[in-house]
Amino acid sequence: MQRSPIRLNLQVVSRSGRRSDGVELTEALLVAPLPLSKSLEERKMSLLFIGTRVAPVAATVMIIATLVTCVSIAKANERYLGGLAWPYFSDTGRDIPGYAVFCAGLTTVSVALVLTWSANYQYQSELLRGETDPSASTIRNYCKAVRIIGVLSALELSILAFFSTTSYPDVHQYAAYWFFVLEAVALVLNTIASYKLSRLNKVLHNHGAGP
What we know:
Membrane topology: Multi-pass membrane protein
Distance between the termini: 63 Å
Oligomer: single chain
Keywords: Membrane, Transmembrane, Transmembrane helix
Subcellular location: Endomembrane system
Structural class: mainly alpha
Order of helices and strands: EEHHHHH
Protein name: CWH43-like N-terminal domain-containing protein
Largest sheet: 2 strands, antiparallel
Organism: Phytophthora oleae
């Protein structure tokens, strides 16, 4: 006697728009997330590439271009020179059009720094993924601190750009101090984290290559 196949009540609309039975439902659930996962991984790689390769170069080029442009405007108009052959950088962004260039340039640098520190954290996190060594927890804390301090330093750069030495001299001055201090601290902590991460990888590699 021929038995009729058992069908499940659960049904789903496939990507082609046709309805499929329960067996095909399992296949759809297994196959459908793969493009999403792949897309997410590609997005992470793109952000990592931008943060580690594009953003640092963009920040360097932009800060040089901003400096040259603002100083050129100041010297051409013979303003804010203070008897100096080359004026203070902050003084070149006091009034339009130098102020507009100053704000746009340093804000772009600030965004590039945020991308750089974020990508740096992502890269270090990928290296630490799945690590159960006790020292890995300490390294993760260093990496988190580096990201937070680095991003805060970038925000201070935007503040000193928009608060000129003419209207808000104190805010501009303290923002400049905090930018350099926080950036220096972030660099030192990042160096420590990278050193510890390198030693951890070396230890794990030596254990893996043992007899």
